Amino acid sequence: MKPMTSMKGLLPVGFALSLLGCAPKPVNPVALNRPPVIRPDYTDIVIPPVIAPLNFRIVETGRVYHVRLEPAAGDPLVQSSRDGRIRFPIKAWRKFLNANRGHSFTLNVSTLRPDGSWVAFAPVTNRIAAEPFDSHLVYRLIPTIHRYWANIAIHDRDLTSFSTRCLVDNLNFGRDSCINCHTFLNRSPDTLSLLIRSPRHGPPMIRIQDGRMDAIDFRTPARTSPAAYHAWHPGGKFIAFSRNKLSPFEHRVGETADVWDENSDVFVFDADQNTQLNVPALADPAWRETWPSWSDDGHWLYFCRAPQIPFAQFRDVRYDLVRLAFDPDTGTWGEPEILVSGKQTGMSAAHPREAPGGRWVLFTLAAFGNFPIYRPEADIYCLDLQTRAYHRLAINSEWCDSWHSWSDNGRWIAFSSKRGNGLMARIYFSHFDGAGGFSKPFVLPQDNPDYYQSCLYTFNVPEFVKGPVAANARTLSLAIMSAERIRPVDLSSPAQPAASPGGPTQDMPWQPAPSAR
Amino acid sequence: MERLKPTFRHAGYILALGVAYAAAWWLIDPPSLAHNRIRPFLLDPIYLCRYARHAGGWLEFLTSFMVQLYRYPAAATLMILGIMGLHALLFSRLLHLFNARRPGPSALLMTLLLLLTWRHYTTLVTVMAIILALSGTLSCLMLRHRHPLVQIGGFAGLNLALSYLAGGPATLMALWVILHTVLLQKRFRTSLALLIIACLAPPVVRWFCYEPSLAALCLRWIPLDNALRKLPVELVGFHLLYAATPLLAAGLARGVSRLDPVVARRGLRAVTAAGFMAVFLLAGFLDWRYRDTNRLMVADRLVEAGQWDAALAQLSSLPGSGDLRRHLTLRSLGHAGRLLHDLFRHPQQTGPDIILLSNPEMDILLRIARKRSDAYYDLGLVNESERWTHEAFSDQGEIDCLLNRLATINVIKGRPEAAAIFLETLALNPFARRQAHTRLAAIRADPLLSQDPVIGQIRAGLSDTDYAGPWQTDEVLQQVLERNPRHKLAYDYLLAGYLLDRRVGDFAARIGRYKEFYPVLPPACEEACITYQLRHGQPPPGMPDWRPDPATLRRFNTFLALCRKPVESPRTLWNALVGDFGTTFWFYDLFGRTGAGLPVTDEELAGLTTLIKPGSAR
Description:
The complex is a heterodimer. By secondary structure, chain A is mainly beta.
């Protein structure tokens, strides 16, 4: 009879608490010597001092979940839940981060078990870095596509909150259109370029610069391939871009999708002169050059190149990481300098990105080919330009890690990783210690802690930006659909024929989904 | 008797409802509707946001939810009946406001017409858009006795809201309200203001929810957009008639009011009766016109449900020999184990590959990506199936069968976490939640589902050689057989493909293995072996002891004798052979098609005149 009485006494209290949205606090918890399982994994990480709340779900059995973020000094942040979903109030979270900038805090989780007893998990220590990252992140959200595209969108996420703005999706200008890569000038939200492929509107590069928006068509009678991967010179005058002849193909074993680059060259667009030129070292007929990327000071152009070989030997394609000296004042170029040799590493390089400061270069190495996002073994590597030594980052996963970008202060990276599921990429952040070390990555936080559990979309091409992008769906769509095109004068030498016929090339390698046509 | 009257009345209502239910079932065929019109739906704010970014997205989201009821045919029929009832009520009210003399029967006629379009022309989005337009119009017209400013304000609010929530209904509503204001209220200034608002609302909505075409936004209730050029003319006619009906009703009412009341009443009755007759005739015509399409869709549904024999029964009743029909036949025969027995009993003709549907020109076929995914999955080619399921996903979105297939494929490929994401997504559909949770629980208990016999079988047969790049269908099938020599379906497909391509030499090179799968040489193979022996003077390789069945040989000799008889034209030869040999490989080899299917045309035979010289066979 006694327990019954006590239960009766508890009922009104529980009812009142549930009405108030409160949860009971831990009472004499039994300490466990293991940390709690939380999803996403926000344990043992370094976080920036300004970021949206890291909401998570506690994947432990319990009726009530209690979380206490305990700083070394100052007020703790406490949050409870009855379903395991922990969502921190944004104001309290910001206050907590601000008060503890540069310091560590512990994450203490307690749960009320179904038998009425409390357990406390071993505390987890996280650190709040002193250095922030940029306030916005622009990324592409795309289904796991093979050759048919649909529902492709570019989003602008405010990293200080959960506010996400769809910059443009292909419904805005034609569902049969594809949105490709986007890049920014020095992470400025006012200067960017975005590539479109559309059966109706062609393959323009949309450029926003100096408050103007225009569409550039790089195709010429001699070179019918449009621009693909591109990068702004830090001075804002040049855009280096590659022309690739890409063809998707499928594997019978392992990862299904892959891409064959039959021929590619790198060109440079001079915005002032409205010309496009190719430098012999960037368009050598004996090589395929791709993935252009400028150094922080604009005196080097990084790119990747591989010798021309036929499709039958696609597993032997190894791209070198190369750079070329450039004098922006005189427009003169140096000789190619191989930084990482594909022959020596036995792997293929892609995505070179130099850190602000000019000492470190991140790049991707995969077993072969030029499309690391389809290679599960693709990992991010770090090259120290002072010592010329490079190493695989310890933060890589068993699945593909790629598409990295640096924050403006060079202390954070954002990258796409398929860790956790092997198929759909998510954006992760990692803190850089300035000496070649990176902290354990954590996933882009979402308001709903279960967001990624049912998200079938891939997040890729994450780019840090210093503010909200100065464009919207309407202005971008109008530029895409406008008939006006800037056609830069082609000053380059005549086009070279493709050196390796026989690949699975098609005129339109990727196509809109039938319902979109 | 007086006491029994209510009982009779109730019985009459029930009978009328029963008839309406049966008629609706017959007109829309709910199981086929569920198969053909299923749409993705997730009860999730993020998913809703995707819709809410575009004009008309909310209506699409709502109807995507309603479409889920198609899973339950009885509920779907009731829902459609309910919507039709609501439509009749609203349309009748609208006609009443336009002074129509007999709004009830006219509204019922229009409702029946709408119901007729449901199966082949319109979608639930269209019908719900019309319902919204009717509701909006009636709401606006409720304000017709109020101050013009109130009327204009109410119209502006509703028009903007409808433009955003549903797109096109705002146009339809504006048309009806302005017509009423001009013709019946005779408020010309107000109507001008309404016209200006109606013209401004879509661009305002488009400013915020940008899309390429303003016309597409304004006409969104008609399923046109990029299919504008493919829009059937009868559907255009229907929508024009539908939009103009209140105007016609008003005009007719004015004309009728000048007639003698008795004459007018009789005339209206006659017109109504003629209208109902026309609708019934139209229903019969549409049923006749689409009977083959309907049967093909039923067969398609049965094939997806794995009911091979029932599918074959449906397919047998179809006269045509389109690529889709032949593919479904081949797949059903393959699964029923009768491919090499009955291959030429069904309509077949030479043409592109219909086994794996590899020809890019077939991209226009209904849900081709899903069919390719199924074909590869049958063969245990998981990567190819994964590719085509993703392509289907790009095309159709988060529908059950695709999410389930992707979950299974990811389990097979050792990515249970990715499989769980597909199932968690499936669980966001309240109508599939239970199924998703059952599968999720199984994956959580055993991430690789190692106890599942089907998955185990596919996993055991996964290729360890990476055949990258494009391959011909026969090469793909040979690769499957290299890895799984006991894969009967692959073997059957390989031989059937050779026979359909009339590659007797390649067929003969593979037929030697038939004993691993069949106790007796299947008829189509026997016939092809005889053909090979005739051409090469020896049995196929690997079958040195093979002797043709005497009865089959006698038939072949008769066939040859008929072929060698002097004939006036290929048609004479066709007529002479089709009765006894139309289902044989020899006939197919000679004419490039089977005797089954549509009657041979002169065009088809004209192509054979160079092949068949009168009096001699090949």
